[in-house]
Amino acid sequence: MLDRLTERLVRARLKTTPAVALVGSRQCGKTTLAKMLGGVYFDLEQEADQLRADLAWDRLCAGNEVVLLDEAQSWPALFPRLRGAIDADRSRNGRFLLLGSVSPALMTRVSESLAGRLALVEMTPLLLTELETKAQRDRSWMFGGYPDGGVIHPRNYPHWQTNYLTLLAQRDLPGWGLPAKPQVTTRLLRMLAALHGQVWNASRVGSSLGLNYKTVNTYLDFFIGAYLLRVLQPYHANIRKRLVKSPKLYWRDSGLLHALMNVPDGDALLSQPWVGASWEGWCIEQVLGTLAAKGVPVQAYYFRTSDQYEIDLVLEFGNALWAVEFKLTSSPSPADMDRLHATASLIGASRCVLVSRASAVLESGNRLSCDLAGLLARLPER
After folding, report:
1. pTM exceeds cut of 0.85
2. Quick one: 5-122 is in which CATH superfamily?
3. How big is the chain by its Cα radius of gyration, in Å?
4. pLDDT tens figures, 2-19
5. Pairing of strands 362-364, 367-370
6. C-beta of residue 75 within 8 angstroms of C-beta of residue 15
């Protein structure tokens, strides 16, 4: 069984808070991780488990085992009970571990009943540093990080991704409140795949579907909440240049992106005109997923001016500001670093990182040129 970086963070949070909510997309490994921690497990999407938890509630609250509550948002009556149980003995930590796949539904319940009583931990599909073999790490970009999606067993791709997205469109997203018909959802997901790594324009997308921009933005919020998509906001700096002020859109899992774009294998991926955007998005998710798994507070942005000065990823760690650029090449040029440094100086970045597929690590002052593994190894710790 693969070790997950998130495990250490969950254990640490359970030692200091009465309850922890482990959130993330379906099938990313939350249930497997929770069961590794031990305790009493309930799948609250099953009415039988809701009844079992209901009848045993007083005994569970009085016991010493961690109570594992999977898909907690499926049982709304749970949250007032949790608040009462926690408030009855605020000195006891590590009592409840909630698992949830849909952040809007879960966060609404948490904010209403458990604010100040619960710690949040986000879990991603498998990260590059969590994979055991070189073959798995080499497959990670093409197949994504879902344990069953091909990174472990390549034959599962793209059938697993197709089934995953079909179930989301036909069952899960409507059940979570998305008002779109499954056919509209599927069309929109394919359109969003073609927009990976681009600046978001809701009006343009809506016109293609016969929808207004407000409706499209509402649908986008559901996809973000289901951990399918990530939106990077622009970094605003007080400079004498016009800035791009719209967010950029990325698919969080590269395997889902490639399946939607009908890419059969790695060779075909390298021939796509958007291959650079795919690699950039995968790298961004690896960086932000690793920071989240370590519990490192960070704000992430991108930066672009109207005259094409751009930084793919701006990381704000308190007083430190990193400018990170991703280049899909094995031989980055000095000019690449010089341009990054010039752009980073516009926002006062304290470190410039050029990430490529070159094996050599070059570091001088606040400049670093390395591969993705080199950057991940140099990220701040908690």
Report:
1. yes
2. P-loop containing nucleotide triphosphate hydrolases (3.40.50.300)
3. 22
4. 899 999 999 999 999 999
5. antiparallel
6. no
